[in-house]
Write a structure and sequence with these properties.
It is a single chain. By secondary structure, this protein is an alpha+beta fold. The chain contains eight helices and 13 strands.
């Protein structure tokens, strides 16, 4: 499932192309600033790549000593790490590099046993070239959902969207980057309440998986915490 996630977001390119920040890339995210892109790739894969060789090249990349799978095995010391969490983290490392894992608050929280806190850190990593990208926001949310699939991210608060369409913002203000949207009656897990831009007289925003939504357009459907209120 983690490999499928990587393939979906990297896309398939049998020939070289430049990614959104200008990095020469081929296959499923085989980036030439990381790898020697001399042809044949890895000394064995001709270009253009066949689908079979593209799969093999991705497998080579993920399992390369000291890189993505090895990075997660060495950096994450959380004893109860499950397969879905591991897969999500490998995707995260493949996209951002092991250095980002090493310095991340996500790693610190997870290694301390705070799986919920770690899961909410995915949404912070959506910039490329200094700017937020919608594609990265979507990828981080998919990684977060895979990370949480086997449990560990439960919250006592949930709401239902009370608007035809409600933007999800990177930060709790109406001018922040839009990372996604919810439609009417969507049930949303809520993780905390903060203050931000006043919307319809309401200063509160809820943190959800991808970002923040205005409490003005949320109806609470499961309230198990003192902060779980739109007022």
């Amino acid at each position: 499932e983690g490999v499928d996630l990587i393939k979906y977001y990297e896309g398939w390119y049998p020939n070289f192309y430049n990614d959104p920040v200008g990095i020469r890339t081929i296959g499923y995210g085989h980036a030439c600033h990381v790898w020697d892109c001399s042809v044949p790739l890895n000394g064995k894969y001709p270009v253009p790549l066949s689908l079979t060789n593209g799969d093999l090249l991705l497998k080579d990349d993920l399992s390369y000593p000291g890189r993505y799978e090895a990075c997660i095995r060495s950096e994450i010391t959380y004893a109860n790490l499950n397969a879905n969490q591991y897969s999500a983290l490998v995707s995260f490392a493949f996209n951002l590099g092991c250095g980002s894992v090493q310095t991340s608050t996500l790693k610190q929280l997870l290694n301390s046993g705070n799986t919920l806190g770690a899961s909410l850190e995915f949404a912070r990593w959506i910039n490329a070239g200094g700017n937020p990208l919608l594609g990265l926001a979507r990828r981080r949310e998919s990684e977060r959902q895979l990370f949480c699939k086997s449990g560990g991210c439960e919250t006592p608060c949930a709401g239902s969207i009370n608007a035809d369409s409600l933007n999800i913002r990177k930060d709790p203000n109406t001018s922040a980057f839009i990372v996604g949207s919810y439609t009417q009656n969507t049930r949303v897990d809520l993780f905390s309440r903060v203050t931000g831009t006043v919307v319809n007289g309401n200063p509160y925003w809820f943190r959800c998986g991808p970002g923040f939504i205005s409490a003005s357009y949320v109806q609470i459907v499961n309230s198990g915490a003192s902060w779980c209120s739109v007022n």
